[in-house]
Design a protein that fits this description.
The protein is α/β, with parallel strands linked by helices and 374 residues long. It folds into 2 domains: 121 residues, Nucleotidyltransferase, domain 5, CATH 3.30.420.40; 188 residues, Nucleotidyltransferase, domain 5. The protein is built from 15 helices and 12 strands. The strands form 2 sheets. The protein has a 6-stranded mixed sheet with strand order 3-2-1-4-6-5, with helices on both faces. It has a 6-stranded mixed sheet with strand order 9-8-7-10-12-11, sandwiched between helices. Helix 1 crosses helix 3. The radius of gyration is 21 Å and the shape is globular. The two termini are 20 Å apart. The model has no long low-confidence stretch (mean pLDDT 96). Bound molecules: adenosine monophosphate (AMP). The site of adenosine monophosphate has 12 residues, from helix 10 and helix 12. InterPro entries: Ac/propionate_kinase, Aliphatic_acid_kin_short-chain, Aliphatic_acid_kinase_CS, ATPase_NBD. It catalyses: acetate + ATP = acetyl phosphate + ADP. Belongs to the acetokinase family. It is found in: Cytoplasm.
Length: 374
């Protein structure tokens, strides 16, 4: 057995998986919420693991992998945690104030609980460090941008990277020969254009706010709206943050932030929910078209995460109007729910449309081993 503990520590939650990397079997998993002290949460997690499965009592991870949201430009791959790395993650907190401090608290608690094993940080931004300057640079005063580290970083990199590899495996092709668009549609959502296994464009930007319509985030909008609201309605930076990160997207459009509820309401005839679904799919199609153009060809469009894996309705709303791009949908394959990786495009289609369940924890554990065994 080679048990690896994968930790995703938020500001008030702790999600974990213990994976045996000999078989890639999940030995234990769980989610602790309303966490105020990450050390206490860790002790609770260890109790849960031992109580859940008698055979796991006394089993200790040989390494711990940590999800870290923002790695800035400092980290382009998974990295063994040292004091210097902890300092860098701390310094990056200004770019990801909602995420990095919780990630850091989790790492510190884990090091206290497992002081003798390696800890590896896996960054959501790392996969997108391959973006070219033309794609990561915002067209603002370069001195301002440089002084404040303003550029596109991109997120969900662990998921995009995992799904791209699985796509190659599923198609029986070499990743180095493929042009892929991954649509990670969860509560947060992002699109990624992947050429030869490298991210060349992605929809999230300096923060996870840019791009697609999400559960509670607006995605793209005219930045002048922020100045306008601050002038005409005295919005403060914190109020704008709340409006765009927590009160927009599906919840702003419909009052509901779960796609299941929005779909049900639309089916029941609620016009706001129908419009929200149309906006949601329209934005995705906008990115698929743009990424097709940037990639200069396309082998596969892949749906993943909560909405992408489960909503046949959203997939149909995205793909059916894109027949002119060679994208087709086999209605009966699309309607099948659950299951693993599957093709939902029509027979003989030029572009494969796939559903591939993401697995960020497994990808973190794999990248951890790559680093430790390198
Ligand atoms: P994730 O962030 O990947 O866990 O995705 C969470 C989101 O997936 C939820 O907020 C739901 O909106 C969505 N979701 C989960 N199951 C379904 C489903 N059966 N149909 C539509 N959306 C779903």
């Amino acid at each position: 057995m080679k048990p690896i503990l994968v930790v995703n520590s938020g500001s008030s939650s702790l999600k974990y998986q213990l994976i045996d990397m000999v078989t890639e079997e999940v030995l234990a998993h769980g989610l602790l919420e309303r966490v105020s002290d990450h050390g206490v949460a860790f002790a609770q997690m260890l109790k849960e693991i031992a109580a859940g499965e008698p055979r796991l009592e006394g089993i200790s991870p040989v390494a711990v992998g940590h999800r870290v949201v923002h790695g800035g430009t400092a980290f382009s791959q998974a990295t063994v945690v040292t004091d210097q790395v902890l300092t860098q993650i701390h310094e990056l907190a200004s770019l990801a104030p909602l995420h990095n401090p919780g990630n850091l608290a989790g790492i510190e608690a884990a090091i206290a609980a497992f002081p003798d094993v390696p800890h590896v940080a896996v960054f959501d931004t790392a996969f997108h460090q391959s973006l070219a300057p033309a794609s990561y640079t915002y067209a603002i005063d370069t001195a301002v941008a440089s002084k404040h580290h303003i550029r596109r970083y991109g997120f969900h990199g662990t998921s995009h990277s995992y799904v791209a590899s699985r796509t190659a495996e599923f198609l029986g092709r070499d990743l180095a020969d493929l042009k892929i668009i991954v649509l990670h549609l969860g509560n947060g959502a992002s699109a990624c254009a992947i050429d030869c296994g490298r991210s060349i464009e992605t929809s999230m930007g300096m923060t996870p706010l840019e791009g697609l319509v999400m559960g509670s985030r607006s995605g793209d909008l005219d930045p002048a709206i922020l100045m306008y609201l601050s002038r005409v309605a005295d919005y403060t930076p914190d109020q704008l943050d709340l409006l765009l990160n927590r009160e927009s997207g599906l919840v702003g459009l419909t009052g509901l932030n779960d796609m299941r509820d929005v779909s049900l309401a639309a089916t029941a005839g609620d016009p706001r929910s129908t419009l929200a679904l149309e906006i949601y799919a329209h934005r995705i199609r906008h990115y698929v078209g743009a990424y097709f153009a940037l990639l200069g060809g396309l082998d596969a469009v892949v749906f993943t995460a909560g909405v992408g894996e489960n909503s046949a309705d959203v997939r149909a709303r995205v793909i059916v109007p894109l027949a002119h791009l060679g994208l087709t949908l086999d209605e009966s394959r699309n309607a099948v729910s659950g299951g693993g990786a599957r093709k939902i495009s029509g027979e003989g289609a030029a572009v494969s449309v796939l559903v591939i369940p993401t697995n960020e924890e497994l990808e973190i554990a794999r990248q951890l081993l790559d680093v430790l065994e390198a």
